[in-house]
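Entry for the shared binder. Reason: the reviewer on the internal report wants the predicted structure included alongside the sequence.
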Amino acid sequence: MTIGRIWLACLLLSLVSACAPNPINCDLVVVAKMPLEVRNRLLVVPAGIGGKWVTLLVDTGAERTVLAADTVARLGLARDEKIVTRSTGMGGSYTAKDAIVPGLMLGGVRFPIQRVSVGQFQLGPGLAADGLLGSDVLLAFDIDIDVPGKTLTLYRPRVCPDVQPPWHEPFEEVPGVKALRDRLLIPLELDGVHGMGILDTGAQATTIGVSMANRLGLSPLAMAGDLVVQHHGAGPGTQVARLHRFGLLRIGPAVAHDPVLSVLPVDAGVGDALVGEDFIDGRRIWMSFSNRDVFIATSDPGR
C-alpha cells in the first residue's frame, strides 16, 4: 500500500474509529454497506451529496471519483479555482476544475471527501449515471462485490497473511495479482499468450490492448473482416475497436471458450487488457488492494 493510499484509508476510516498505530489488525470490520444494482452489465450504487441522491458507476478502472459536469451544475456545487484535473479514458481527455462537495454518503456513512473530479463521459445506451465511484475510494478498502446479493460492502483493509473473504459459498483465489499505482492487475491467458489485465468494474466486457494483440499476431489485416464497434467512457468521444473471436480465455477460475473480445488498435492506456464485468459475470468477487488479493465465488450465480 502506498503512503498516499495509507493516508487516504486512515482518513476515511476515521469515520468509524481512529487509525491504530499498529497497521497489522486482522479483525474484519465493515465500514459501509450499500445496495448494488446491475444496469446494462455495469454496477451502480446510490450516493448522497448535500442531501441529494446521485447514482454512481462502480469503477475500479477510474483513478478518481468523478461527477458529470451536468450533475455538478444540477447540485449547485462550487468549483475549486485552484485545482484542475485532466481525466483521460476511452473517450479521450477532459479538463475541468474540481467540484467542492460536503462529503460523500455511502451506505449511510459520510466519507470526508472535500472535492471530486468533474468529467464528461458517455456510458453507452441503456445506462445513465451521475458519475463514477473510483479507485481513490474503492481501493482504500477491501471490497465485497456481491452481485447475487445486490450489495457492495467496504471493509477496513487488512495486511495480514492468509486473509480470505467471509463467505459461506465456495470460492477460488486468482493467483498472481499485482498492483500498479491505483490499479489491481490480474493474470490472464488468451490463446496461449499470457498478460496482465487491469481489473476494471467500469468496463462492460474484457478488452484487449494493442500490445497483447501484437503478441497474439493480430495485425490490422488479420482483423480486417471483424466487426467494428465503438467504446464509450470517460471523455467526450468514443474509441473504435474490432470484435475478434478467440479460442480460449482464462482468468483465474473463470474460463471462456470461443470468446468474442474487443481489440483496440491504439494504446489507450489499458496495457495488455481491461478485465471487465464479463469476468464477474453475475458472481461475487472480493478485491483487496492492500493484500493484492482477488477471490471469486465458484458457486452457480443462479443462471
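Summary line for the report: Helices lie at 3-13, 69-75, 135-138, 210-215, 277-280.
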